[in-house]
Amino acid sequence: TIQTLNNQDEIGIVRGLAWTSVGGDTLQIEVNTMPGRGEFRLTGQLGDVMKESAQAGISYIRSVSEQYHISDEYFRKHDIHIHIPEGAVPKDGPSAGVTMATAMISAITKIPVRADVAMTGEITLRGRVLPIGGLKEKLLAAKNAGMKIVFVPAKNEPDVEEISEEIKKGLDIRYAETMEDILPVALMGKISEKKPGKKKKRAEAE
Amino acid sequence: TIQTLNNQDEIGIVRGLAWTSVGGDTLQIEVNTMPGRGEFRLTGQLGDVMKESAQAGISYIRSVSEQYHISDEYFRKHDIHIHIPEGAVPKDGPSAGVTMATAMISAITKIPVRADVAMTGEITLRGRVLPIGGLKEKLLAAKNAGMKIVFVPAKNEPDVEEISEEIKKGLDIRYAETMEDILPVALMGKISEKKPGKKKKRAEAE
Amino acid sequence: TIQTLNNQDEIGIVRGLAWTSVGGDTLQIEVNTMPGRGEFRLTGQLGDVMKESAQAGISYIRSVSEQYHISDEYFRKHDIHIHIPEGAVPKDGPSAGVTMATAMISAITKIPVRADVAMTGEITLRGRVLPIGGLKEKLLAAKNAGMKIVFVPAKNEPDVEEISEEIKKGLDIRYAETMEDILPVALMGKISEKKPGKKKKRAEAE
Amino acid sequence: TIQTLNNQDEIGIVRGLAWTSVGGDTLQIEVNTMPGRGEFRLTGQLGDVMKESAQAGISYIRSVSEQYHISDEYFRKHDIHIHIPEGAVPKDGPSAGVTMATAMISAITKIPVRADVAMTGEITLRGRVLPIGGLKEKLLAAKNAGMKIVFVPAKNEPDVEEISEEIKKGLDIRYAETMEDILPVALMGKISEKKPGKKKKRAEAE
Amino acid sequence: TIQTLNNQDEIGIVRGLAWTSVGGDTLQIEVNTMPGRGEFRLTGQLGDVMKESAQAGISYIRSVSEQYHISDEYFRKHDIHIHIPEGAVPKDGPSAGVTMATAMISAITKIPVRADVAMTGEITLRGRVLPIGGLKEKLLAAKNAGMKIVFVPAKNEPDVEEISEEIKKGLDIRYAETMEDILPVALMGKISEKKPGKKKKRAEAE
Amino acid sequence: TIQTLNNQDEIGIVRGLAWTSVGGDTLQIEVNTMPGRGEFRLTGQLGDVMKESAQAGISYIRSVSEQYHISDEYFRKHDIHIHIPEGAVPKDGPSAGVTMATAMISAITKIPVRADVAMTGEITLRGRVLPIGGLKEKLLAAKNAGMKIVFVPAKNEPDVEEISEEIKKGLDIRYAETMEDILPVALMGKISEKKPGKKKKRAEAE
Ligand SMILES: [Ca+2]
Ligand SMILES: [Ca+2]
Ligand SMILES: [Ca+2]
Ligand SMILES: [Ca+2]
Ligand SMILES: [Ca+2]
Ligand SMILES: [Ca+2]
Ligand SMILES: [Ca+2]
Ligand SMILES: [Ca+2]
Ligand SMILES: [Ca+2]
Ligand SMILES: [Ca+2]
Ligand SMILES: [Ca+2]
Ligand SMILES: [Ca+2]
Fold first, then answer.
1. Smallest Cα–Cα separation from E101: which of E138, E136, E50?
2. Which CATH architecture has domain F13-186?
3. Mean of the pLDDT values across residues E139-168?
């Protein structure tokens, strides 16, 4: 069944999109941070690929922490917990990478995430967004859950173009090449400006 | 067989409801806290999903610890042990989440839990209460064990309405959207007041 | 074969009762404590349930340590080792819970345990004694090993009543609801007095 | 499908060559370093052989760290994370050894790697480059991805000679006996000079 | 094949007796101690029961360390390594318990062990020696290896009496109830005197 | 295929001999040491027996460290990494014990190992050399790889005598009872003199 989502912007909660054997679904990824010893907990029956995807996300965040005014010490003095309800349902795959990373940045910076934004995409250590599968079902689930903006990987653009307009109607579909395409929108512009001349590592040749 | 329960309010003991192959049952979840090094022990043949559910509960508690006047240092300087008798019976699933969280808060704050309250529901990192299964059998078990109040997830309201009045008669069934619906009743109002304007993250659209 | 037991009171050694495929048997549970770093070792081919039962016992002891004049630091500065000979025989189940807990308290407080006392029962974090199986075979083994007093869980009273007088003759069978029913007898009254008004958590309704 | 690669030199990113059941492919190996406690993380569904290969690489780098002006303390005060997208695809084998080592040295020294260089080869603790398989498919994948220079193990020279000129045309294939044959080219001469008279451990008898 | 043994007394080397599918064999158990951090290593393809047996032995030694003038700090500041050649042959069972304990005490106290003494028996935390199997084959192996004195568990006395005199001829078979029966002989009287009135926990009723 | 070996003496590299399903082979065992925290890494797809063999070797070295002027602190302040190429080929068995130990001593003392010496033999904690299998194939591999001196366990002398002179011709086969027979030759006499009167634990009765 499609999960009915909160309609209020919250810190550390981001809507992901899942592709299951019975169709698309939304996943409300939750992140808590707390004073601790640098431990990283992942719960909600996540598979190996999904856990590695979360680790890629946290490494990306640590590598750009200066940009978001997060101190080096933060990661040593806090624990980070990612949980994906529904706890009895096994989940796997790399496509929640950008969602988990966005939720972590929101939880760390205490900037709320827009409640009407959903996203899907594999993340790399450099914040690149790689293509994923099951787009049609995911877009349908996002729409049914009342999402307005959906970020999909730029490399999935050809897949999106093949999906019928009926499904896409009412959704503002945006293409992401890197996390820097997602964060300003999801965090509503409240993140600090990008430093000019740095991190301009877009792949122009694609 | 239905477990005969203590009829006295105790610290760190909460009645959960289980759904087994032979019907409903009550689980008397016990939590001990002791001076320690921040270790978290889970015994009683708990499965992976149940263990993750306990971890979600402790993260929820840590995220709202300020609200309950629990110091940050508490979790680094104490060990927490959750045990669910009967030790030889394997137990799993996310539905004891709210019960384990309530027992932990009681054990940490040293506020006793009403002995005539039972509860069932998955917990998330933010203290949301998610729906569970086996409600009919669980309510029957609660009744047979002499429980008076039973908390069930708000999203299970349609399931409760389909259960015959004969089973529900004599039970005060209450719907919980978040842990904040459960704690004041289970801890008999002895927890500190909620801070106004904070943590008002109810899902109005449900 | 029935193990011939020592006939002298010893510190940290308690006679348990086991129920095997070939009948009852006695288990001479040994506990050593030594200066250390708070490690807890369990040997003698113990199964998961038995190991968790030992952990429930140590948590119970830590939660009542003040009552027995054991300092908080004790558990951080000592290692505790529970061993159950015969080392090649796999052992499991929760019914050695009270025996392991009694042996640990004896080893920690250096108070000897009566050599003619045997016991069986699951222990909970609060020291409650839960019912177990195989009573007839266990009582027979206790008798053959020369035991005089046998503690059984109060909830097993109906089972005891169905056992023939021939087996029970010569055994002083006592019913335990909590560890506090066992310890004064097993430790021969040498433990410190219970503090009045505290820990009166008996289940009157049973 | 052949991965389209970035066309810009980057720090900590090196193009490897993989041999899969459906042909050759390029792997864009990413390395992040961050202040930490000497932890080494490997993600992207890497098999045991590949993980050991990464460990051989890091040991090689530590053993020659003086040569590259990396302080002993570096490895104790930083975490190193190697990730290989696409995260859902299992990867194994020793042939990414030289690629992972090059990416690590780039990430540690902050010297960018030429974007048009690809490489394949097993690495040993001493930086020797051992032969690998699937050369024809790998060279084809490198060419399709727009690579200009490809390093292959010197011991694979006979295999290269048997590959048709059509495939090799346009590729500058170079033979590597040790990492010291690869690094000056991949890091564009920006690494410090080799100390004369040291590390002259070439195998002349091959 | 029967292992030819050294004929010289050595520190930390004791001859055990094994019972294999092809008959008895001797095992030359080696123990090294070295400055360290309290680690305990067990190599030579030892099974779980044998590893637990070694742990029981070290706990026994720690519990009587005062008696042998070993300081409490010893075990925190040294590593102990037990190795049983031949490294490719899996070994298991509790019957090397007394042998491993004797080798450890020799290695710790630096007192050599008589080269012509062999032994077999399960050890408990209190140094009791429990009965074992395969006695006939073990005695034969001891004899063939040139052993003069063989310690067997006191409770195996009936088994020894049933073995033909031809096998036993030339062997000085001694019965051990506790480690204190073995150590003075194996360590050639060079261990310090037992403190009178302490540790007199023999089982008289056996 | 027979591995062509380096023809130059190197620190921390020793030629072992392996016996595989397709005949003998040489293994070029590499050891790196580096400033660290006493960690011990083993890579190259080594099986359990081989890993334990390496651990026996390091314990042997630690037990004789004084003899080779290695300080106690060395092992706590360095990491040791043993790697055996080819990384994708599983390797197991105890027969590389003496080879790994020799490579470690060379790496720790920085004394090069003769490039024309190969060796095979199980090692014990005391540096005894135990017999191994597959001698004919191993000697053939050593010869094909250009080795001049081959150390084999003294107890394999009868096996060597049965091998045809054609295979042995050109090889200087030496018998080792202990590591002390191997080290002076392999390390070219550059190790410090043995202290007279100590460590004379040869087995004369063999
Ligand atoms: Ca759902
Ligand atoms: Ca673009
Ligand atoms: Ca029950
Ligand atoms: Ca509502
Ligand atoms: Ca028995
Ligand atoms: Ca009663
Ligand atoms: Ca690809
Ligand atoms: Ca060459
Ligand atoms: Ca043998
Ligand atoms: Ca006797
Ligand atoms: Ca080879
Ligand atoms: Ca000899």
1. E50
2. 2-Layer Sandwich (3.30)
3. 97
